[in-house]
Amino acid sequence: MPFFVFGQVDTAEVYRNARHVPRFQAKSVEKLSDALAKNCSNDEEVVLSYAYWICKNLKLDYAEYEKRQAETKSIKKILRSRKALADGYTKLFVELCSSQKIPAIYVSGYTKDYDYVAGDTLYRAEYAWALVKLGDEWNIMDLTAASSKVTSVVSPVSKVLWTLFKVPYSSHLVAVKDYNPAFLYVDPKTFAKQHLPAVDVFQLMRYPLPMSYYMAGDSAINVYFENYPEVQKNSEELDVFETKGFYDRNLYFADKSLETNAFTQYTKALYYYYAVKMFFNATYIEEKGKVFASLEESQKALRYAQVSDSLFSIATQNNVQEQMAKQVRSEKWKKNLVESNKLLASQLSTQGKMNSQQIRELGKINNQNKKIQDYINKYRGKYVLRDIVDLSKPMIQNKELKEEGMEKINRSMELSENCASMIHDYDSLMQPLMKNKVDSVYRMQQSVSNLCNQELASLSRYLDKKGSNLSLVYYSDKYVFKKGYFEVFAKVGEMNDTYTDPTIEFLSERIPLIYDVIQRYVKETIESLRLLKEAKVVLANDYGEDDMYEKIALAFNKQLGVFEKQIADVTDFCTKMSACLDDDVVVYKDISKMLQNDNTMESYRHKEYMNYRKSLKQAENDKIKYYQETLRNYQKLIAKAVNGK
After folding, report:
1. Nearest Cα to Cα of residue 144 among 97, 69, 91, 188
2. Which tens digit of pLDDT belongs to each residue from 524-564?
3. CA 302 to CA 641: how far, in whole Å?
4. I need a surface site. Which of 29, 231, 280, 376 has the fewest CB within 10 A?
5. d(Cα 33, Cα 27) in Å, to the nearest integer?
6. Per-residue confidence band for 4, with pLDDT thresholds at 50, 70 and 90
7. At what angle do helices 29-37 and 86-99 cross, to 10 degrees?
8. Looking at the predicted structure, is the pLDDT value of residue 3 above 70?
9. Contact at 8 Å (CB) between 574 and 440?
10. Would you say 506 and 367 are in contact if contact means Cβ atoms under 8 Å apart?
């Protein structure tokens, strides 16, 4: 509400008085007007009282709007039913203002409907609001928006069916009471983003917003207002229009509407229809079955009727064109969603196959690890000092046997040195597979799994929300392309390629080599120990065979323990990694199923939406058919008057 109104209106008192108007005083405009104006001290309070009463007592009949009734409700019927469309809200307000000699104008204009997308063509100026003059300024009053808001709702039965059986369903649009005074005394530039009058002068702007900018969307509108910021509320043309009779007002709207929007043949046809209807009702004498008017007036009315009829035919074609445009877009979004989901499912399938292959590789690796561990356990602890201590030495040393024994000791030492070299080879092979390193890869895979589970939960929430309140129409293609999911699973694939897959390939390559080194180490160590035992039984003197045997055996058992621990760590890694990858495969399958459900829901939504659009088109065309049939009856009777019959 503008500052000057705040300064002159006790809002709370006006609201209180308007709330307490008895119902019997609201059966006619005159009685209601008097009752609401009774305690008001100025026009500002009267206007606010009218607006508040209308907003609080009328209900927007959205179901009636969807039926596209040809003939609008009378004021009397509106007051009785307390239901109206924008047309009724505005007419009642204008009537109330007129009863108190407050200048007010009914304005028809465009609104961007629930399925409007920037760039759509607007064919019908079927919304309505009022302009009211207080002091020297005209003000915009949108009683409909101030009274109610349109929202989507679903039936309880549909919710139960979704919860139990995942049966998708569409929401339907209803109007709910929601008093919002922000739509009273609306700033012209703010209002122009939502509604645009059928004729430029009613914008209350020095440089009216072109229809092309309005249809292009908010960004284009903002650019225009940056270039043309001035607003001019005072208009002599509006003052002149306000003095016109309803017949001339209809002609004014009809003649000027195509200047604002070249696609609005319907609007021009409708206002010519209203003018012809008013002419006919004023001049037709039913008892005589004739129109009584001057030849000039009759000729004009006949021409208006003919033009209106012709324009309505074009409007019917426009309805078909609009229907096709909506259908093409909806089918495009449906196709894009299915293709997008298919692409994402393919990406997940590829990653799932990769994971399954990795799980098989990890299984093979663990089978090898099992063999290695069995092999190690076969020899671990088998060689101890008593194996050589209990052996007897000869009493007399034979020279040849001495040489043989010394040769065995030397050979044993060579083998022991070879084993040390093998341990070095083993360490080199095992170094990239040490517990701290493979665990870091596992943690990375866990983070991948967490991402997957988060996306699963996110998609589940998205589909549940979508399925439990399936919008009749999407407002943009943001619901179609799952950009975030593609980005996440691209990251999942990248992390797999960078960490998991190379590690598994490394394991597949290295474990056989490690097993080979362990086998050679065991064989040569056993051979070294055997040689020491054979040397002892042929040497009369002690050359330290027992000590060497004990040292090698202890080192051997210790090293086998190291082997066992490290192979166990690798086995544990492979087991955990396999379980993690397996969980991810399950997640990928679950997501793929959800994507299939999404396709099913989108097909359902598209079908429901197109059925809804078809019903609207049919209602529009039926209404036009009614207008044309009525016009043709008028034409016959007016033509008789023109022809002097």
Report:
1. 91
2. 999 999 999 999 999 999 999 999 999 999 999 999 999 99
3. 10
4. 231
5. 10
6. very low
7. 70
8. no
9. no
10. no
d(C-alpha 559, C-alpha 556), whole Å: 5
106 sits in which H/E element: strand 104-111
Tokens 């701290």 correspond to 436
- Transcribe 489-557 into DSSP letters: HHHHHHHIIIIIHHHHHHHHHHHHHHHHHHHHHHHHHHHHHHHHHHHHTT-SS--SHHHHHHHHHHHHH
**Residue 76 is encoded by which pair of tokens?**
């009397």
SS3 109: strand
Locus of tokens 């084993």? 419
pLDDT confidence of residue 24: 87
What token pair was written down for 594?
């959800």
User: How sure is the predictor about 235, in pLDDT bands with cuts at 50, 70 and 90?
Assistant: confident
b/e string for 328-351 if b means 16 or more Cβ within 10 A? Answer: ebbeebbeebbebbeebbebbeeb
- Looking only at Cα atoms, what is the longest distance across the chain? 161
Rounded CA-CA distance 168/462 in Å is 13
pLDDT of residue 480: 58
**Whether the Cβ atoms of residue 246 and residue 601 lie closer than 8 Å to each other:** no
